[in-house]
Amino acid sequence: MQSNFFNSSTLLVSLVFAVNILGASAQPAFAQKIGDRVVVSANFETKIHTKVVGQVYEGDISEITAINEQWCSLRSVKGWLPLRNVMNLDTAKQRFDKRLADNPKDFAAFAHRGMIYYETEEFEKAFSDLNNSLKINPKNAVAWNNRGRILHAQQKYVLALKDLMYAAKLNPEFPHAHYNLGRVYYSLGDCKKAIEAYDAAIAINNQASGYFVNRGSAKLYCRDYEGAKADYEHALTLDKRNADAYVGLSNLALSAVKLDDAFAAANRAVELEPQNAMALNARGWIKYKQKNISEAIDDLSTAIRYAPKLSLAYNNRGVCYVSEKEYDKAIADYNRSLELQNESPVGLANRGVAWMGKGEFEKAKADLAKAVELAPKMTEALDAYAWFLASCVDQSYRDGKKAVELANSANELSEWKDWSYILTLAVAEAESGKFDEAVKSAEKAKAISPEDEKQEIDHKIKLFKSKKPFHSAL
Fold first, then answer.
1. Burial (Cβ within 10 Å: 0-12, 13-18, ≥19) of residue 267
2. Distance from C-alpha of 159 to C-alpha of 98, rounded to nearest angstrom
3. pLDDT score at 405
4. In the predicted model, what is the mean pLDDT of residues 14-19?
5. Residue 304: CB partners within 8 Å, gap ≥ 6?
6. Which pLDDT belongs to residue 423?
7. What is the pTM of this model?
8. φ, ψ for residue 463 (rounded to 5)?
9. Which helix (H) or strand (E) holds 45?
10. I want to staple 201 with a disulfide (CB 3.0 to 4.6 A). Which of 162, 178, 408, 424 is the partner?
């Protein structure tokens, strides 16, 4: 059994959804508003009226999602606890500083302070404190788990896996170690291993709604749509106010191109948690899909205001700016996204499209080629590079044969279900002089395309029938 000061049931889901599992021991300090990140100051049974519905532990770090007079609720924790039982991060850090001054061998204080540094993204200090904790007590599974989380945040995935596997070995009944293994596997794009790790966490604790949300996201990544839906819905039976479950349902509906359902779910997430950056990001992206570009930019900008280091929101806002032909703004957003998530294939592919729009073809080719090199099975990158090689207005950059290869790969990976990828293949075939094949591919794309895209596809079909390729600045 793990000791109480390291135990936690607190979950924070982001998009890659993530859980914060920390420990602390200090005097309480009232938080002032919804959205504050706080540390639980003592073990406490959370309640609805007089009924005990959950548990928090000394040291859990979470976010206040609601306040009712002198009570508060925390993200993904059932029930309410007194505001006096939480303290802000600065107060908690000061208490751990004092504990360590009084007792330099207090391994728990090192571990707890390290995770506060993790919260403030002072990763070197966080890593140093976790190392000090492990030197004093090398058999503490939670400390190994938390060091693994720091390595994950730094995108040092192999080292993170090593720490998390050791944490699970030390304490096989520690669910968070399995859960965080799932997060790392998800970041690596291995959805099957992520699901296996989440299965292990749920087998130990089947009351954590965030575990089901994250497993649902892994299932969605693996195209197990029914399984994803079941997990998101079960998460809501555990916690009907779990905004992240609604974000998951929104992503699921979006994958089926059910924009109204996707918007309703994302909007509900924002209603539940108006400062939830992932919910705002999801709703903004759907507004983009609905061609409400200005409203999409508003939501994404708000998401960035609440989460200035949410790379996905910068990336999505960049896509909006490209659609408005504001390429410099788009490139600035992609640059920021790539600073936050180094060498992200998605960010590189999207920035390549923006460079193409600006006529900076050498930069476009470099970004698109790098994206495919980093993620040879990422359909978006394959499609974007194929489009560039097939349609670039500068003849020196066109390569119809390679474009056909890339487009075929994108379509095979997407099981020929994405009309836009099939249309890219048509454009590549036309560039290769295979006009009859281009017509057939374009007609296949048209058959499954949205109504508002069919006229433009008809224009391309007319070109191909006239034995003319399609070239475009974007």
1. middle
2. 31
3. 98
4. 32
5. 277, 310, 313, 314, 317
6. 98
7. 0.79
8. -60, -45
9. strand 44-48
10. 178
